Automatic annotation (TrEMBL):
PANTHER family: MAJOR FACILITATOR SUPERFAMILY (PTHR23501), TRANSPORT PROTEIN (PTHR23501:SF5)
Pfam families: MFS_1
Organism of this sequence: Pedobacter duraquae
Main location class: membrane
Membrane topology: Multi-pass membrane protein
Protein's recorded name: MFS transporter
Repressor is among the record's keywords: no
Chain segments annotated as transmembrane: 12-33, 53-70, 82-102, 108-129, 141-160, 172-192, 204-226, 238-255, 275-300, 312-333, 340-357, 369-396, 408-427, 493-514
Protein's cellular compartments: Membrane
GO molecular function annotations of the record: transmembrane transporter activity
Length: 531
């Protein structure tokens, strides 16, 4: 179907349509990034722990990942104008409820509904983008820009929301999203004709059972990975029963799909080795992206930077992403070897991790981290779109939808796994280093006495009374030990990820079939389940 003539009114210029689509998709992407905007602000407002804030984001993500396959039935049945209104109104209403409530359980419920509606609105936008871009070159650039926006959304959200959070409570962000939705949705509504983009399929035999099984399994998987370390894994019955539930539900889901005539997700995509390779690489990429959370924690807790200045610093990362998506899309269009593109991207990430490993120090100037963050953006932007396009091009066209939806699962799993690994290093490794430092600073070897004496002399020289200086010296020693344990945990984490990247580069270099996959942007469309 020619979208220009049938869906979009004939008098609308292409450049204006693209701006309007951007206005609609920006708040949709922003809803995902809200939970990362200020973990402490969200925790304080909803009376929850930091892990609870992370889990609210996981619930949103699980809804997007699980609803994608079912959402296509609604998209084909409902005309595009009412479908746009339904999805946008659902997101506005759920955002308003998240704005007004202080109840964490209510927040979780409506974040899930919000994720389902978000999947619908993103489907509309990416389908309009896909129809606007006629040539393979234009489509490759379009998808590079789209997935580049996904890579930038957390940093962009930090940059934009920091001034708001400095003046208002956390819930004001949901109010801002509501106001962002209105103009783009209203304008797009009047620019569209009331037609269906796909052939109308009646809403019978909707596989709600598969959706519910899959959604609950993803929510439980996220629960285990987010709370596992905090609850000491299987020593806590909540984690044990949740893990059993994940295994049971996923097995039930797999057996159900094999028995259905029209599978919710066609698992035959895993028969294609190159698809499995792409799934592994996107999983690894999302684990590597988790390192940015460790960097943010370091900038806040060790260097004492405020969110506004962290947002400014992350503009270097955004610049790296923008530059790299332009270069990587050009390389794909010129049919450069996929192996070369991937190795270059992971080399950028390796440079970032090794460099940051050596930059974790108690005191540093913020400008020191501009170039490393820029390089991290280069690596992520070089990898994201080529890996996703490689995955959907590795399967026949009739499996493109399942390949996209399954790819979202691996992004979800990588995202949750990165949280689990960071929690492990944050809790376990910090404790190990704390014990080690305490042993080194025991009074028996005199090192602690020497440090305290030095702190005391410094404080007395600045006019503080000796008794008060003794108490403050003990506090300074304790703070110094705490800082060192945080630095060591961050260094341990970055060291582990560096070894993972090295192993990934070797896998890519040795895998023989990487360069034999032809990127196909005509038969298969990347997933609108965007995150």
């Amino acid at each position: 179907m020619n979208l220009d003539s049938s869906v979009i009114k004939s008098w609308v210029p292409s450049w204006f349509m693209r701006i309007v689509i951007f206005l609609v998709i920006l708040p949709s992407l922003g809803l995902f990034g809200l939970s990362t905007a200020s973990g402490s602000g969200a925790s304080g407002y909803y009376g929850a722990e930091p892990a609870d804030v992370q889990y609210s984001m996981i619930v949103f993500y699980a809804a997007v990942a699980s609803f994608f396959a079912l959402e296509r039935r609604f998209f084909s049945f409902i005309a595009i104008k009412p479908y746009l209104l339904i999805s946008s109104l659902l997101q506005i209403i759920t955002s308003y409820i998240c704005y007004t409530t202080h109840n964490y359980q209510v927040l979780l419920l409506f974040r899930f509904i919000q994720g389902m509606a978000n999947c619908a609105s993103t489907t509309i936008c990416i389908t309009l983008i896909f129809g606007q871009l006629k040539t393979e070159r234009a489509r490759e650039i379009g998808y590079s820009v789209f997935y580049g926006m996904l890579l930038c959304i957390a940093q962009f959200t930090t940059l934009v929301t920091a001034p708001l959070l400095d003046a208002f409570d956390f819930n004001a962000l949901y109010k801002a999203v509501i106001f962002l939705y209105v103009p783009g949705t209203v304008i797009l509504f009047f620019l569209l004709n009331n037609v269906r983009i796909e052939k109308k399929i009646p809403l019978y035999q909707l596989d709600w059972a598969s959706f519910l099984i899959y959604a609950v399994a993803l929510c439980l998987l996220g629960y285990v990975l987010v709370y596992g370390q905090q609850y000491e894994w299987f020593s806590d019955p909540r984690i044990t029963y949740s893990s059993i539930g994940v295994i049971f539900l996923l097995l039930t889901h797999v057996l159900r799909q094999k028995g259905l005539k029209r599978a919710y997700l066609d698992l035959s995509v895993f028969k294609y080795k190159k698809f499995a390779l792409g799934a592994l690489l996107i999983f690894i990429l999302y684990i590597c992206r988790g390192a940015m959370g460790v960097t943010t924690t370091y900038l806040v807790t060790i260097l004492g930077m405020d969110p506004i200045h962290i947002g400014y610093l992350y503009t270097a990362n955004i610049a790296g992403v923008i530059l790299s998506i332009l270069i990587s899309s050009r390389m794909v269009l010129m049919q450069r070897p996929m192996r070369l593109i991937w190795i270059v991207g992971f080399l950028f990430l390796l440079i970032f991790h090794v460099w940051m490993y050596n930059l974790f120090v108690p005191q540093a100037d913020a400008t020191t981290y501009i170039l490393p963050l820029f390089i991290q953006g280069l690596g992520a932007g070089t990898l994201m779109t080529p890996i996703i396009l490689f995955m959907i091009s590795a399967v026949p066209a009739h499996l493109g939808g399942t390949a996209s939806a399954t790819g979202v699962f691996f992004r979800f799993a990588g995202f949750c796994s990165s949280i689990a690994v960071i929690n492990y290093f944050s809790i376990t490794k910090q404790s190990e280093h704390l014990i080690r430092f305490q042993e080194q600073l025991s009074t028996s070897n005199g090192l602690a006495t020497q440090r305290i004496s030095g702190y005391k002399q410094l404080l007395v020289s600045r006019g503080i009374a000796p008794d008060q200086a003794s108490r403050l010296a003990n506090g300074l020693l304790s703070k110094s030990v705490h800082v060192q344990t945080q630095l060591r945990y961050a260094m341990d984490y970055y060291q582990l990820i560096s070894w993972v990247i090295i192993a990934t580069i070797l896998l890519i270099a040795l895998y023989p079939a990487v360069n034999r996959t032809v990127i196909n942007l005509r038969g298969n469309q990347p997933s609108p389940a965007s995150f």
